[in-house]
Amino acid sequence: MSAVLNFERSTSEVVLIVDDVPDNLSVLHDALDESGYTVLVATGGEAALQRASQALPDIVLLDAMMPGIDGFEVAKRLKASALTAHIPIIFMTGLTETEHLVAALEAGGVDYVTKPIKPKEVLARMGVHMQGARQARQTRNALDAFGYASITVRASDGKLMWQTPLARELLMAYYGTTAPAAPEAVVAWLRRHLKEAEQQIEPPRLTAQLGARRLTFRLHQQTGDSEGGGDWLIVMREESDAQVIEAMSLSFKLTAREAEVLYWVVKGKINRDIGDIVGSSPATVKKHLERVFAKLGVETRTAAAGMAMTRIRQLHPQFEG
To answer: Cβ of 221: how many Cβ atoms within 10 Å?
Structure first.
């Protein structure tokens, strides 16, 4: 079944309909299926939560009043999970009193339609809300394709609204934290630079160190309502000494050891310290440096470090010398 769903997801968007009345499910299922959507159904709250976490639909059409776990509670639980918080929810309700409609929106719904259900109205409302979700998904997919992890953090309460699988691994490795709470250092950094970000001025990046590995965060864009600071898409990229050294080796046509020596020169180390780090004598380090100077066409370690730093920052903008 999962193989079929994965194939379907590549060609159509997935809608989860949640309603305990079979006739309502049937009418909507047929209309959405004819419109090219892949349709999943659930007849109760527990089943809805399970399906949503497994299939990660593009949108949920949710009946407000159901026995057991009602739609309001389902919505709250979906929004409380970093896995499903990004999914738009449209409530379907026969309750038209203002207090019920407000409750639907406060539970996490982006919109509502009233019963009896009119499929054309549902399709129109879905189109409005799926456009934003589609753009956000395309952005995340593009970032992931180039090796960047991403998260969405709500500035007001520091809640981690969404994260890629790679982001989940990195946050656990560097901070030992899991959703729904974002790392305190990340939340503090976000709040400190909100004014700059809102004025479209890119703030300084946040860097976390883990041995020879570094994790860099940068604010990418605001993705939600600006109230209380809004939701922000944060892009993460991990770098390591080994990656930078390899890039220098390829860029300047250096041997691996020459690139390693040049890297530590950039870091401000003297020959004796570099020898201790790479396991060579200071005299051997000096010989490596002489060959580096010749290949770079410079005469001093300051000039070599400056040229290397310029190239590193072109290849790895988040590198801190």
So the answer is: 13
Q: Where are the domains of the chain?
A: 2-141, 147-238, 253-315
147-238 homologous superfamily: PAS domain (3.30.450.20)
- Virtual CA dihedral for 190, 194, 198, 204, nearest 10 degrees? -60
15 Cβ contact list (under 8 Å, min separation 6):
32, 37, 38, 39, 40, 57, 58, 59, 60, 61, 126
Beta bridge partners of 239: 214
Among the listed residues 83, 72, 129, the one whose alpha carbon sits nearest the alpha carbon of residue 106: 72
Beta pairing, strands 14-18 & 59-63: parallel
What CATH number is given for 2-141 in this structure? 3.40.50.2300
CATH class entry, domain 253-315:
mainly alpha
pLDDT in tens, the chain (321 residues): 333 333 334 457 899 999 988 888 888 999 999 998 999 999 999 999 999 988 889 899 999 888 889 999 999 999 888 778 888 999 998 877 677 788 888 888 888 888 888 999 999 989 888 877 777 667 666 666 666 788 889 888 888 888 887 888 899 999 998 878 899 999 999 999 988 877 878 889 999 988 768 899 988 877 765 566 788 889 888 877 787 888 888 888 999 999 999 999 998 999 999 999 889 999 999 999 999 999 999 999 999 999 988 887 776 665 655
C-alpha 177/C-alpha 79 separation (Å) is 19
Question: Any bridge partners for residue 210, and if so which?
Answer: 213
The strand pair at 206-210 and 111-114 is best described as unpaired
Decide if 248 contacts 259 (C-beta within 8 A): yes
Residue 317 pairs in a beta bridge with none
